[in-house]
């Protein structure tokens, strides 16, 4: 793990990385993906990105995605874009939404395990941006392959990986571990054992990282 | 409507009041009730408090309260307290939770229509604080009466009001209007026709009030 200058200067022991759970089809995860690393770095922390399938966690918690409810859908679509703009980010609501993201998530774990976390994170960031600013439909094999090629990654090897039992099983294991850890949505953050759900918990996360627990629970 | 000094100084026309929808059993509405008036005043706005029944809006949107899901319940209880402390407020999770709040909501509208909005808002603030910091169970007639007496209000008249068809019908009308306006949770804010859902939208509300729309939707 990269030792942060803050931790080194203060002589404090290295603190555990932040667990950041995301789904490639979550607008709020896209927004959070753009700030989590910088926020963590400011506090001498690293981030472990975890690609999961939101559908699996929704199912485990008997929840539905926000756009499944007609009344809530209008609000959600408005809030996605408003929250992105509030964070200073571009946003264009994809016409195809939501999408199944298992192929992209398997590519993430394949990159992670064979080329390293930073390659995987680079792909994740690019994938989220492509879907939420250019409407690149990650569930469409041709569009996912084109994106991989654009990033200089081996699209053939990636497609083999997303069809391979090894990476299907790898993703399944990550999903199960996430549900077991109490994850029921995305983005979801685990920091020093404390769960934070939602892009809108950013201010609380910043305070936690700066000053530690502020709850007696 | 009270003319704000800001609006008067800038010579701008009076802007419409903020609509603030709350339920007496919502922890996030309790938190929001402690900042909404101050935030509005800083931007030359007034607030119209609207006591609603969250159950009615949940039903209309086919939603369930967050504590209805076992996996989400643990998180929600933790987040209630953490979010209150983050806002600098005391919080004690009521043992009886959630509670039916139609009596308290009817008292709110009875006070509103017979004694004025500020009396009603004073009761609302006190009721939310009593429930979420002292565990005063507002659904228990004896405890609600004791709270009313503590506030110098006529408990006998209040009890007559909450049993009266007039105030039952009044609350029903408010709920229906809220659902028709797109309200599906609490706290819920309508500002210049823009909907904001949740205590955690406070930063976006502040920016909206300061600088207007920041979304192109």
Sheet with the most strands: spatial strand order of chain A: 2-1-3-4
User: Based on DSSP secondary structure assignment, what is the total number of beta strands of chain A?
Assistant: 4
CATH class division of chain A: Alpha Beta
CATH topology category name of chain A: Glutaredoxin
CATH architecture of chain A: 3-Layer(aba) Sandwich
Biggest interface between chains? A-B, 33 and 33 residues
Radius of gyration of chain A, taken over Cα atoms and rounded to an integer in Å? 17 Å
- Based on secondary structure, the structural category of chain A is alpha+beta
Determine the oligomeric state from the structure.
Answer: homodimer
- What integer is the average pLDDT of chain A? 91
In terms of DSSP E residues, the strand content of chain A is 5-15%
Number of domains of chain A: 1
Give the tags:
217 residues, Glutaredoxin, homodimer, 11 helices, alpha+beta, four-stranded mixed β-sheet
What does this structure look like?
Chains A, B: InterPro entries: DSBA-like_thioredoxin_dom (IPR001853), GST_Kappa/NadH (IPR051924), HCCAis_GSTk (IPR014440), NahD-like (IPR044087), Thioredoxin-like_sf (IPR036249). Chains A, B: Keywords: Isomerase. Two copies of one chain form a homodimer. Chain A is of the alpha+beta class and 217 residues long. Chain A has a single domain (18-211), classed as Glutaredoxin (3-Layer(aba) Sandwich). The first copy, chain A, is built from eleven helices and four strands, in the order H-E-H-H-E-H-H-H-H-H-H-H-E-E-H. Mean pLDDT of chain A is 91; it is low at 1-11. Chain A binds chain B through residues 60-63, 69-72, 74-75, 77-79, 81-83, 85-86, 179, 182, 184, 195, 197-198, 200-201, 203-204, 207, 214-217, and chain B through 60-63, 69-72, 74-75, 77-79, 81-83, 85-86, 179, 182, 184, 195, 197-198, 200-201, 203-204, 207, 214-217.
């Amino acid at each position: 793990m990269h030792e942060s200058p803050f931790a080194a200067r203060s002589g404090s022991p290295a603190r555990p990385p932040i667990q950041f759970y995301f789904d490639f089809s979550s607008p709020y995860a896209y927004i959070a993906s753009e700030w989590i690393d910088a926020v963590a770095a400011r506090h001498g922390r690293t981030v472990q990105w975890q690609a999961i399938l939101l559908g699996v966690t929704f199912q485990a918690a008997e929840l539905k995605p926000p756009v499944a409810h007609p009344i809530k859908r209008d609000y959600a679509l408005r809030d996605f874009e408003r929250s992105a703009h509030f964070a200073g980010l571009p946003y264009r609501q994809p016409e195809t939404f939501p999408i199944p993201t298992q192929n992209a998530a398997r590519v993430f774990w394949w990159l992670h395990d064979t080329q390293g976390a930073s390659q995987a994170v680079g792909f994740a960031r690019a994938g989220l941006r492509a879907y939420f600013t250019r409407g690149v439909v990650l569930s469409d094999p041709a569009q996912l392959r084109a994106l991989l090629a654009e990033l200089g990654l081996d699209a053939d090897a990636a497609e083999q990986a997303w069809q391979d039992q090894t990476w299907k099983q790898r993703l399944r294991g990550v999903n199960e571990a996430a549900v077991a850890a109490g994850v029921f949505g995305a983005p979801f953050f685990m920091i020093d054992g404390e769960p934070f759900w939602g892009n809108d918990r950013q201010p609380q996360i910043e305070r936690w990282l700066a000053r530690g627990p502020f709850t007696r629970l």
